[in-house]
Structure formats: C-alpha cells, structure tokens
Specification:
48% of the residues lie in helices and 9% in strands. With 412 residues, the protein is of the alpha+beta class. It has one domain (10-410): Orthogonal Bundle (Cytochrome p450). The chain binds protoporphyrin IX containing FE. The site of protoporphyrin IX containing FE has 28 residues, from helix 12 and helix 16.
Length: 412
C-alpha cells in the first residue's frame, strides 16, 4: 500500500466516523471494531478524517517514543485530522500538549516539579480527606450518579487546590473544563463551539484575576510558581500562564473523572473482580493499571510527521496526522493473552494510557494516586454497591475522551 493506494480489505474496514465516539456502536463497545481494523489494516489510511490510524501496540509505542515526530498542529498539512480537531488560526493558543521543543520543554519544565511522584505522595492524605468528605455527603442515599457526585468533584477539587484557586468555585471549573475539552472534538456542534468560546473567556478572566492576586501575594501553589517564572524574565508570558492553568485544570479533572468512572464500571460489570478487590485491597494498584489497559480514559493521542516516513510498508507524507489509538493498543492480542478479559491480577498490565515520549502525561502519578485512593474508599463505604439497572450507564460523546456520561449505582 502507498500514499495513494488502499490496502487489502480496505473497503471492509471501519473508517472515519465509524472509528469514533460519534458512532454509538464504537462508543459503547469499541473493541470489536478496533480488533477488526487491527487484523485487517493495522496501519490504516482514513480518508474521511485525513489521518493514519494505528492500532498495534508496537507501532503506537514506537511512534509515541519517537522524538522526531511533532505535536504542533501548525506544522501539519492543511485539512489533516489534527487541524480538524483544533481551530488553528491566528487566535490559536498552544499549550505544552501541542508544541514541540524547545517551546514544549520550556512550558513543561516550569510545572513538572509540582507533579512528580514525591509531590503527589505528599498529597495522598489530602486526597483521601476530600474523597471521604464527598462520601460522607452520600451517606444514606439508596442510589446516586457516581460520576456526578464522586468521580467528578474529587479531581476538580484536588487540581483546584494545587492551582491555589478557591474550591468554592469548583462547580464553575467543572462546567468550564467540560466545555474546554471539546477543543479536541473534530465535529463540534455550533452550540459546543459557543460553549468552548464561553469557557475560554470565563477561564481567561478568572485566571487573570488570580494572577493579579498572586503578583500581590505569592503562595506555595502552582499559579504562584508560574507567576514567579513569568516575572523571572522571558520564560513565560501572562497568556502562557493562563494557557497552562487551563490545560492543567482540564487535563487534571476530565481524564481522572473518567478513570475513576471506568474503574467503578469495570468492577461493577465484573462482580467477581470487585469481590476479589474487597477481599484483597492490596490489589488496587494492579487493578487500576488493568483499568488503564482495558478501558483507558483517553482513546487516542496524535503525532505529526515532519518528513516522509514508512510505517510497516505504508508511506506517510510530511505533515500527516498519526492517530495512535490507545484503546486499541490495550487489547492487542500480540501483547495481551485473552485481551478481552478484565483481570485485576493480570501480570501483563503494561499499557499506553498515558501516551509516551516527550509528551508522556505529566499527571500520571496524580491520576494513579487519586484512583487508587478513591476506589477502595468507595467500596468500603458501600458494601452492597451495584449498578442501577433502571438507569444503564452510557458513554459520553467527547472524543478523544472515553468515560461514562453518568453512572447510576444502588447502595441498598
Ligand atoms: C487517568 C487520567 C489521565 C490520563 C489517562 C491522561 C492521559 C494523557 C495522555 C494520553 C496524554 C498525551 C500523551 C502523549 O501524547 O504522549 C496526556 C498529556 C498530558 N496530561 Fe494527562 N492524563 C491523565 C491525567 C492527568 C492529570 C491528573 C494531569 C494534571 C493535572 C494531566 C496533565 C497532562 C499534561 C499537562 C499533559 C501534556 C504533557 C506534555 O505535552 O508534555 N493528566 N495525558
């Protein structure tokens, strides 16, 4: 197969919209579709979305780890998928997620320390206190939406505290960041476009006020650290402080909400595994890694080619988008025996859920800590926790994110 051609079985391959959360079948049950694609065309040229879709773990790991590939959509070719997913015009505000070195290194290094393993370990008692107080509020409730009342607020409060902003504003943050993550959705409705602009405006105004306050009085929070870097000279502009705070707020809560939601859903759908975890709580770390393999919160991540290259016989032009389907990588039978089985004792829990290479998720230790704390506390508080069969869980339509839109449970 070459740049112009199509591979064997191409006409039968799911492509474009069918390979996205806009397809209800894919949204609720992506693996049959991805397994078919991986078997027929592991390096798939998607003409509808102008991208090359990768579903094999080995290809995805190689691409994510390859620092000669980029992440800045301004360097992609016109019409390519990465430009569909983001508005790349003169108002474009890049963050570390979509810049290349040296800008990427400069933006990332300023906040990296706040998220390292040591910093996160020190936060564990506070994360547990926030989780417990949310669970206190649910005492005596026979049923509730676990996403709305637990998995959603926990990461929002934690990241708001790290940024040093008022947690009383967490409901606003949740609304703004839910609208903000639509910035990666390649098919936004006009209403979602309007909500995105509204959230950017509100967050910009909010953070501009907080930055002003921190200039007057420095704290030990992340925004104070960013303000110090800004005042240190050329390192950071005020707009970059705002963009970084926006990224951390959105990345810090939507994905972790989805991880806690997906973990709860996996366990509720596999009661034998939930029972095992109740009996052997020391399995929680492995259980969370298995959720990250089996049902990862970020379905895919992108890279851009700067020069022509070949992947398994497929020639990829410069400026093309490579779509690394993380969801597919976790179920690759070449890596995981019996990949469709959810097993909290699985030995081969390796996964690509946090991406890789230069852009490897900065918040991975935090996301792991929050979910490793949240799930055991939830199970301990509700010994009879089960799915509310009157209100089945559905997945949200917010690509590339993968998590339940709501998760109604019963406790009685
Ligand atoms: C389960 C939860 C999470 C998942 C699954 C997740 C996943 C990811 C993925 C797939 C990427 C892109 C990596 C790549 O392209 O190689 C990423 C980047 C990033 N994540 Fe996360 N993330 C999670 C939680 C968090 C949290 C809690 C934070 C921080 C508060 C965070 C901050 C970031 C940042 C700043 C980047 C950009 C890093 C860079 O470009 O250098 N994430 N994450």
């Amino acid at each position: 197969m070459d740049e112009q051609g199509s591979g064997p079985g191409a006409s039968d391959c799911p492509t474009g919209i069918a390979l996205s959360a806009f397809n209800p079948e894919f949204r609720e049950c992506p693996h049959q579709i991805l397994n078919r694609l991986r078997a027929a065309e592991p390096v798939h040229r998607d003409r509808q979305f102008d991208r090359v879709v990768l579903t094999r773990r080995a290809d995805i790991e190689a691409v994510l780890g390859d620092r000669s590939l980029g992440a800045d959509p301004r360097k992609s070719r016109p019409g390519s998928f990465v430009r569909m997913a983001q508005i790349v015009d003169e108002t474009y505000q890049p963050t570390m997620l979509n810049t290349d070195d040296p800008e990427h290194k400069r933006l990332r290094s300023l906040v990296a320390q706040g998220f390292n393993l040591r910093a996160v370990e020190a936060m564990r008692p506070r994360i547990a206190a926030v989780a417990n107080s949310l669970l206190d509020g649910l005492a005596g409730r026979a049923s509730f939406d676990l996403v709305e009342e637990f998995a959603g607020p926990l990461p929002t409060i934690v990241i708001a505290e790290m940024l040093g902003v008022d947690t009383a504003d967490q409901k606003d943050f949740k609304r703004w960041s839910d609208a903000l993550v639509m910035c990666l959705n390649p098919r936004r409705s006009p209403e979602q476009d309007a909500a995105l602009a509204w959230s950017r405006e509100n967050l910009g105004a909010y953070f501009r006020r907080v930055i002003g306050e921190r200039r007057a009085q420095r704290g030990t929070d992340l925004i104070s650290a960013l303000v110090a870097a800004e005042e240190d000279g050329e390192k950071l502009t005020e707009q970059e402080v705002i963009n970084t705070a926006n990224l951390l707020l959105a990345a810090g809560n939507v994905t972790t909400t989805d991880l806690i939601g997906n973990a709860a859903l996996c366990l509720l759908r596999h009661p034998d595994q939930m029972q095992k975890l109740r009996e052997r709580p020391e399995l929680i770390r492995n259980a969370i890694e298995e959720v990250l393999r089996f049902d990862p919160p970020v379905a895919s991540t992108l890279r851009i080619t700067h020069v022509e290259r070949e992947i398994d016989g497929v020639m990829v032009a410069p400026g093309q988008t490579l779509d690394c389907v993380i969801l597919g990588a976790g179920h690759d039978p070449a890596v995981h025996a019996d990949a469709e089985r959810f097993d909290i004792e699985r030995a081969d829990t390796t996964h690509s859920a946090f991406g890789g290479g230069a852009h490897f998720c900065l918040g991975a230790p935090l996301a792991r800590a929050e979910s490793q704390i949240a799930i055991p506390l939830l199970l301990a508080r509700f010994p009879r926790l089960r799915l509310d069969t009157d209100r089945p869980a559905t997945h949200k339509v917010a690509p590339p994110f993968n998590g339940p839109a709501g998760l109604w449970v019963r406790t009685d």
